Amino acid sequence: MIEVQNIHKSFGDNHVLRGIDAKFEAGKISLIIGGSGSGKSTLLKCMVGLHSPEQGKVLYQDQDFTRMNFEDRIPIRKEIGMLFQNSALFDSMTVEQNIIFSLEMFTDMSRAEKIERANFCLERVNLAGRNKLYPAELSGGMKKRVGIARAISMSPKYLFVDEPNSGLDPETAILIDELIAELTEEYQCTTVVVTHDMNSVMGIGDYILFLYKGQKWWEGSNKEIAHSDVEELNNFVFASPFMKVAKERF
Amino acid sequence: MFFTYFGQYLLLLKSVFRRPEKWRIYWKEIIHEMNEIGVGSLGLIAIISTFVGAVMTMQIAFQLVSDLIPNSVIGQINRDSSILELSPTITALVLAGKVGSSISSQIGSMRVTEQIDALEIMGINAPGYLILPKILAGITMIPVLVIISIFLALTGGLVGGALSGAVTPADYISGITDGFIGYTVAVALVKAFVFGFVITSVSAFKGFYVRGGALEVGQASTRGVVISCIAILVMDYIVTALML
Fold this sequence. Notes:
CATH class of the domain at 1-74 and 196-250 in chain A: Alpha Beta
Distance between the termini of chain B: 33 Å
Strand content of chain B: under 5%
Order of helices and strands of chain B: HHHHHHHH
Largest interface: A-B, 23 and 16 residues
Strand order of the largest sheet of chain A: 6-7-8-3-9-10
Shape of chain A: globular
Oligomer: heterodimer
Helix content of chain A: 40-55%
Structural class of chain B: mainly alpha
Shape of chain B: elongated
Number of domains of chain B: 1
CATH topology of the domain at 1-74 and 196-250 in chain A: Rossmann fold
Strand content of chain A: 15-25%
Helix content of chain B: over 70%
Number of strands of chain B: 0
Distance between the termini of chain A: 32 Å
CATH superfamily of the domain at 1-74 and 196-250 in chain A: P-loop containing nucleotide triphosphate hydrolases
Number of helices of chain B: 8
Structural class of chain A: alpha/beta
């Protein structure tokens, strides 16, 4: 489980996060949603240690991640898998090298074992046999899937996903959502997804945290969101005329 | 402003020299970078050094037209200029452009495409993994390139002098061998070592902290080259003042 307590983060005069509290449970998919500039990605980056909050704590199984130094964070970081918005694959490495990179750095597995693990991860994301391709040779959806394969190579306890569906067609986006749901179930990991995609919200959101102007404005499940009377949330989730009609019929 | 950047640079160096996660992986990277910096720059350095040596010989001959000065002095002056100043400094300035811009843009691109964030989240010391191999390759390969440059500058001087008729090969060889002081080569190697460190670390620093997109990566690369060139000239003065 991951818990964030009273997180504040500013960039100069811009106070982006204003005291966020939330709990993200193991085996469930937690979504962070909100408009552009609401602080979603900043919260995610504070959680994984890419940003240091000015105030507040990020607790991984009750261990205060924010107060740890670089060396103390390493054991927790080995349990983190992350899929970036633009996949962030190492472009000088092949798909296989991307996947086994963490294994090479942190394990004493033999070459054959590492290749076997890479093949397993690639099969898991339906990309078997693409080991020797470079990121530049992959489509956007394939890059996302390789990013997921890399994220699960170390069997993560915590899976962070930043905008998994951005730039993907609706069909591929649903496949990626399904994959995230399957992996969360399989590894019983704490999955935190930052998304704008309403299909994801309605489809896989066990817990949804809605941020508005840097504050926690609403939290609940995808079942509860349809019946919410919070105006800002409704304006965000049911923004299009089609979604408004859908909400009324729900 | 200067002290802020300098402090940030020192903090980055502190991270760079943290103990590597696995030396075997770093060693592979070091070999790769040595090939990129050393072998990859050999052709350019060879051409520049040979022509600089040839031109130097002709210009020294042009300025020393006197019956009182033996022609072998042309070789002597060319030797000392090449060893002490021209080969280390010109090699370093050329490499600041070629290698430095490549390092800044490579690391800068990794920063803006979140590849460095990915390394950090994996628990890998990104400055160490990305920059340490480049610095180690720089401080080993640039002295090698400088030695090659010295040899080619002197050879270029021999050929240039003979072809232009400025100095006979016998006089030239007599000049470059008479009164040779081995210490000058030590000074050249110290300079090359310092320049190697400056080029790789400054360029990596500019790339590592880039913010924005492709435009900012290009700007960081240019700034990296400019700062490296200025730092090379300042360090050249300091090393010369300390060692000679």
